[in-house]
Design a protein that fits this description.
The protein has about 160 residues and is an alpha+beta fold. It has one domain. The protein has a four-stranded antiparallel sheet. A hairpin with a 3-residue loop joins strand 1 and strand 2. The longest helix has 29 residues. The chain is globular and about 45 Å long.
């Protein structure tokens, strides 16, 4: 049972991490910082940006040293909590376990960037006219989907029969 649970966590979070690292490496290698490639004109571009802060640039104005220690520590703590919750998830709640594995993979993907570069590489740019959603990446997408699954589970708990 433990091996099966570990295998699922490794498969889901490892897939997220691998896809995140590959896409970020491609952006770093092929697209200069600040440049964009339109994918769906007027709606979606690949745009190479760096985020020194948290979600949506949160705390980006802090000193580089303090920000690095803070975000790495918070990311490590969050990853440990996610793994704990994952292990506590009952076997019949696979969707919840899947969501937690997505969050874990995304958290590790962004943690790798923070350790390597001191920033997070973002490149998915969604917009309509002048209204832009903050740029994000594969890790952010996995975290968002995982959190929605977790919230769904909280709102609509699966009651035992």
């Amino acid at each position: 049972m433990v091996f099966k649970k570990l295998k699922r966590l490794a498969l889901v979070s490892g897939s997220v991490l691998l896809l995140d690292l590959i896409t970020k490496a491609l952006v770093l290698a092929m697209l200069p910082l600040g440049k964009s490639v339109p994918v769906i004109p007027g709606f979606f571009d690949i745009t190479h940006v760096h985020n020194p802060g948290g979600a949506f640039g949160f705390l980006a104005g802090l000193s580089v040293e303090f920000r690095a220690v803070l975000f790495i520590a918070v990311s490590l703590l969050a990853a440990m909590l996610i793994v704990y919750f994952y292990w506590q998830t009952p076997p019949d709640q696979r969707l919840l376990a899947f969501g937690l594995a997505l969050v874990f993979g995304g958290a590790v993907g962004n943690l790798v960037d923070r350790i390597r570069f001191g920033i997070v590489v973002d490149f998915l740019d969604v917009y309509v006219g002048d209204l832009h959603w903050p740029a994000f990446n594969v890790a952010d997408s996995a975290i968002t989907i995982g959190v929605f699954i977790f919230a769904f589970h909280l709102i609509f708990p699966k009651n035992p029969a």
